[in-house]
Amino acid sequence: MTTIREPLLEPVAILDLRPTQITVGMREVKAKRERWRDESRKKGEEFLGKHMIPVILGPKHRHYVIDHHHLARALHDEGVKEIAVTVIANLSKLDQDSFWYVMENRDWTHPFVDGRRRPYSGLPKSVDKLIDDPFRSLAGELRRAGGFAKDTTPFSEFLWADFLRRNMKRKAVETHFEHALEKALDLAKSLDADYLPGWCGPVVEE
Question: What is the set of domains in the chain, with CATH numbers?
């Protein structure tokens, strides 16, 4: 395996990027779209230069995204055609089975929908095919609200999303997001969540 970690000098078409997860939080995507609109008016090129997409070079030299799926989807929805990428590792010489074995063992893929695993063939072929998981949006907002700390554990917000999914109704999240966030904050402080990355512990009453 060749580790590179250098940006490609030539940009890559966003729709040529291959996702390594199936879902995103569309509320998160919307927020990133709004930020891009603000940034692009003043310093769009500078923003893109600071937000390169980390990828793995896979079979047939395809670029597999391992982070910033929300940003890639947001930029596509805003009409951006190309973006610079940072190649983290070159696995292009591997066959498909070996490639996914390495991806799995390096925590570079998360083929789950609603907490259930899907085959690698179920991964979208482009970022515009990523589907919405409202619990992923709730987990992201929960972290920003101080419900748990940012953590280096791969896919930590998906772990929180699955915890919330087991304790809340999807319809409640979709129709009453602010109320759902209040409930999520209570759940995040409970001992039931103490196994999750970034758990901040229960509030101690004095």
Answer: 2-132 (3.90.1530.10), 134-192 (1.10.8.10)
